[in-house]
Amino acid sequence: MNIFYSHSIPLKDVLNDLAVEFDTTLQQNCDEYILTIPAAIGQGKITGIDFKEGLGILIYDCTFLLDCEIHFIIGNVHPLKFLFCEEGKLEHRFENETTLHTLDLMENSIVASAQLNGHVIKFCAGVKTVIHSLEMDRTEFQINHDCELLSLDNTLETLFRDTTATQAFHYHGNYCVKMANLFKEIDEFDEKEFLRHLFLEGSAYKILTLQLMQYLDDGISAIHRSVLRKFELILVHEAVAFIDNEIMDYISVKKLAAVVGLNTNKLQSGFKLIHDNTVNEYVHNRRLDLGSNMLKNSEMTISEIVYKLGLTSRSYFSKIFKTKYGITPTVYRSNGNIAFQNT
User: What is the Cα 161 distance to its own chain's centre?
Assistant: First the structure.
């Protein structure tokens, strides 16, 4: 087990401490600091940047040869941390506790240590780990957002205003799809200096916004939650497969949501994200695609095709087919499915 220490804030000083511990140098690009992991310890890098109003971002993208702990011990109030695991896994504990909080793939935590106690994070040997850590100096943040904090619920307002760290706080959840997409954009953004600073600063506030929306969403009944988590996309894909393979059995959005284990709000959000359609729009288009294919490649009657598509009315099928393609199913088949008038 390798153990490294940082005894400083802000982030540039954190990374400077770690550079000394790693026996390496720290690279600076304007306000962004990059620590490259030495080959004797592992590979990858840790980057950090502080912004105005008390926010900053640390990004860990590294693989260590041995289990590795980083101890943040500063003898002062620590930043409020929002941790997100994009790849691999991480373990976190408070300096004065032995309880470990495991952060797995696509999970996130909000952590605040009590009093002057620090944080310890542990990386597993040989596991490529990508962690985004949004860091908040609550004193500075409150000065700039005192009025807006009044609109938060009691728990969050208390947490944000606890500038003397009177109590510890720990929250664990699964982060949302929008957050996952934002991290992907951050990882792939390759502009330099000025544009990168603007992008990362804007991203920091977007991360905070999405995290608070997710936290509030977690606090309501599961049936009413609307924030789609990344792991729930698997269930959305199952719903798509059900429609594609069992379209005759499709009855309603509510029934489909029950089949895959999502509420209707999240199911609709997932379809909008993946296909830019509502569930019913997707079903509608899928029926027409399948219908045209059956007209072209089968000897089934139109009535049989209507039944296979889960519809009860041949006239309704003819109507929606003509609306999309400009000709009726009968004309389409009799003409040897020549090019549609409207595509």
Answer: 26
Ordered by start, the domain boundaries in the chain are: 2-218, 224-276, 281-334
Whole-angstrom distance between the N-terminal and C-terminal Cα of the chain? 63
Residue 113 CB partners (closer than 8 Å, separation 6+): 78, 94, 95, 96, 119, 165, 168
CATH 2.60.120.10 fits 2-218, yes or no: yes
**Cα–Cα distance, 79 to 133 (Å, whole number):** 11
d(CA 41, CA 63): 9
In the block, which residue shows the tokens 């899928």?
286
Q: What's the rounded Cα separation, in Å, for the pair 111 and 122?
A: 15
Helix axes 279-297, 314-325, angle to 10 degrees: 90
Asked if 78 and 118 count as a contact pair (C-beta separation under 8 A), the reply is: yes
* CA-based nearest residue to 262, from 277, 279, 246: 279
Q: What is the Cα Rg of the chain in Å? A: 26
The two tokens of residue 269 are 């959000």
CATH number of this structure's domain 281-334: 1.10.10.60
Per-residue pLDDT of the chain in tens (343 residues, 90 and over written 9): 999 999 999 999 999 999 999 999 999 999 999 999 999 999 999 999 999 899 999 999 999 999 999 999 999 999 999 999 999 999 999 999 999 999 999 899 999 999 999 999 999 999 999 999 999 999 999 999 999 999 999 999 999 999 999 999 999 999 988 899 999 999 999 998 899 999 999 999 999 999 999 999 999 887 788 888 888 888 999 999 999 999 988 999 999 999 999 999 999 999 998 899 999 999 999 999 999 999 988 989 999 999 999 998 999 999 999 999 999 999 998 876 544 443 3
Distance CA(207)–CA(183), nearest Å, equals: 9
Q: E strands of the chain, at which residues? A: 2-6, 26-29, 32-36, 42-50, 55-64, 68-72, 80-87, 90-94, 101-103, 107-112, 119-123, 129-136, 169-174
- Would you give the distance in Å from CA 240 to the centre of its chain? 21
Q: What is the pTM of this model?
A: 0.80
- Residue 231 CB contacts under 8 Å (≥ 6 apart), including other chains: 106, 174
